[in-house]
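Structure first, sequence second, as always.
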């Protein structure tokens, strides 16, 4: 577990995209976030109190979250110095960068001296096993995508929030760096060796007997040539009772591959259901979550209506409209499947 509360580190960021990790954590777990750290030149804010590391420690912060990304995922000299300042203030540090905190000799030495924890979010546990496909108890939902970066994390978190509002036990199971900070635990499956992805998914969502749900954050897309492997491993290891398909309707092509068109939603849904039947023959589709941020309200409703007519599934935007209909159908169709 990553100890909270958090101080969100923004560094000298000048655009929202470079601090999307911090933005996601602040949006979905505001109760964990006490303040933000900005260095000279920073023009981005999360509207949290600005603090240095000593002030954060005095305010009760437990972990500094490096909410920044950069080309190559490496630590520049300024960031290294700030990490050392945070450690000397007695704060844990969590990083989603590719370069490990624990392999930097000075950072590791200072952390040992101060007795603080270093969390390298992109580096999975070393004792993962391969998937077994053995059926396990519990209820599980996995978000899947027509492409990468279409809102799978947001959809999963929105369903968790909706279930909690109904007093239904539900746990968001994180598979990416931002999700891990939100859940305070998880496995970054894009860093898992291919043979162990399904095993990682099994570890993330173990058997449960409390009638609660594991809501598993999806990654990639079965139709993306670069990332289909991680999507398939998650689908097999999660053994989901239901999937929710996520889609960005205005996207012109697969992300990063201009020559490849997006799949049809029917083909995408069918492929995920067929692949999922390997480990859960009773898998069903519960709904479609769309990112309509580029559509006006009238266009959004036409998009919903078109997809609902095509797939006969509820369609909603987790951010703009919520996921009440998707959650209703998720519970209903899984209850019906279990009864059968």
């Amino acid at each position: 577990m990553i100890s909270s509360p958090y101080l969100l580190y923004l560094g000298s960021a000048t655009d929202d995209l470079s601090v999307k990790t911090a933005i996601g954590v602040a949006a979905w777990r505001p109760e964990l976030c006490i303040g933000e750290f900005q260095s000279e030149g920073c023009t981005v804010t999360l509207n949290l109190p600005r603090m240095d590391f000593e002030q954060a420690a005095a305010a009760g912060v437990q972990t500094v979250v490096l909410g920044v990304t950069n080309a190559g995922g490496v630590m520049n000299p300024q960031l290294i110095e700030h990490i050392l300042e945070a450690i000397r203030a007695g704060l844990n540090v969590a990083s989603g960068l590719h370069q490990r905190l624990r392999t930097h000799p000075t950072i590791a030495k200072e952390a040992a001296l101060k007795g603080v924890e270093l969390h390298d979010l992109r580096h999975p546990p070393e004792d993962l096993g391969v998937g077994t496909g053995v059926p396990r108890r519990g209820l599980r939902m996995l978000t899947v995508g027509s492409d990468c970066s279409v809102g799978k994390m947001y959809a999963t978190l929105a369903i968790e929030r909706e279930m909690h509002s109904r007093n239904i036990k539900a746990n968001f199971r994180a598979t990416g760096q931002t999700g891990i900070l939100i859940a305070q635990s998880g496995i970054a499956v894009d860093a898992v060796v291919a043979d162990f992805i399904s095993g990682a998914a099994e570890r993330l969502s173990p058997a449960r007997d409390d009638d609660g749900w594991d809501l598993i954050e999806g990654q990639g897309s079965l139709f993306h040539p670069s990332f289909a492997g991680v999507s398939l491993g998650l689908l097999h290891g999660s053994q989901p009772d239901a999937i929710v398909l996520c889609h960005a309707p205005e996207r012109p092509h697969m992300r990063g591959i201009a020559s490849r068109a997006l799949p049809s939603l029917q083909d995408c849904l069918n492929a995920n259901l067929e692949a999922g039947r390997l480990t859960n023959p009773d898998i069903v589709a519960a709904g479609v979550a769309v990112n309509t941020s580029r559509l006006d309200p009238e266009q959004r409703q036409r998009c919903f209506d078109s997809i609902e007519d095509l797939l006969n599934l509820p369609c909603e935007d987790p951010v703009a409209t919520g996921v009440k209909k998707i959650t209703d159908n998720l519970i209903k169709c899984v209850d019906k499947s279990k009864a059968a």
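Margin note: The chain has a mean pLDDT of 94.
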